[in-house]
Write a structure and sequence with these properties.
This protein is of the alpha/beta class and about 260 residues long. The chain has seven helices and nine strands. Strands 2-1-3-4-9-8-7-5-6 form a nine-stranded mixed β-sheet. The protein is elongated.
Length: about 260
Amino acid sequence: MAIRTVVWGENIHERTNKVVAEVYPKGMHTTIAEALNTDGAISATTATMEQDQHGLPQSRLDETDVLIWWGHKDHGGVSDETVERVAKRVWEGMGLIVLHSGHFSKIFKRLMGTPCDLKWREAGERERIWVTNPGHPIAQGLGDGFAIEYEEMYGEHFDVPEPLETVFISWFQGGEVFRSGLTYRRGNGNIFYFRPGHETYPTYHQAPVQHVLRNAVKWAYNANNRNTAVHYGNVPIEKAPEPIVERGPKLHAPGEEGYK
């Protein structure tokens, strides 16, 4: 079965900014989904912020193997309820790919536990993306790397946790460097952060970028996605692996859920 992928787009710049609308007349989310759908192993659809429940009700998340997230202008407008639904699905095993300015999204900061801040400059600089982990599945077919002629600069320090793997680093014309392809795991969910994608430039129309995204979906997919939350809770005395005798004072009553 094809990997069920949802491309989530904020879809604000495309509707309010003439330059962005000309670069992405159908929206960045649609451009990305169409690129993914050129691979028969992926079945991609889209969701946008203005839809009911931001296009991500529980029923849809339950049927999603990998979620791709692009946001910028209104991170705060995403409801906390949606963020918690997405976080829960990641813990259960749904893959998550966060793009470009999604580093400041509620869901990425929720899962990273850090401010996720960085340096930036909007000057249409050349970005050279170097493959630092050539054996990684996300880097397959890219050789040493590739260049993007016009991009927004992101520079170190990138205030995120130490990643499991660094797949790409970027160099910009102004001299800054940036860890631009990072992997994480939260619970059973695989997470990939990919830096390129400023909305005023045609980044997502470029073949190497599309190639990375297709690779990333396949990497992020977890075939053992359980679709159920793991709840441990209180273990009754009689269910202890080894026989024990209760002793000492207790704070909780038998069967009580306890504090969280």
